[in-house]
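Supplementary Text 2. Reproducibility record for the structural model of the 116-residue chain.

All settings were left at their defaults, and a single model was retained for analysis rather than an ensemble. We include the record here because the model underlies the residue-level annotations in Supplementary Table 4.
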Amino acid sequence: MIYVWAFVVGGLICVIGQIMMDGFKLTPAHTTSALVVAGAILDGLGLYEPLIKFAGAGATVPITSFGNALVHGAMVEAQKSGLVGVITGIFEVTSAGISAAIVFGFLAALVFKSKG
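Retained model, structure tokens:
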């Protein structure tokens, strides 16, 4: 049943993003930013972790989980290290994903030719 809920929750997040682009005529950049901020706000309110426990990858794969990771890392490190932890926590939690995106983006640029 976890697969069904992951599909439903992940799909609903994507539907919300599509409605933002089609219905409100937002650009993909605006939509992505709004979804990241929504994930950050939901984590700040303590609502995103229960969603992750309920839907698993349906909540961790969409872009909203990036906002969740930023806030969650900052809050955990702030409890340990104070104000300095807010900054270090953001980088600690998201560094692997950002590093992977840079490395894989570079490798893709080497393999594929740009049309521009």
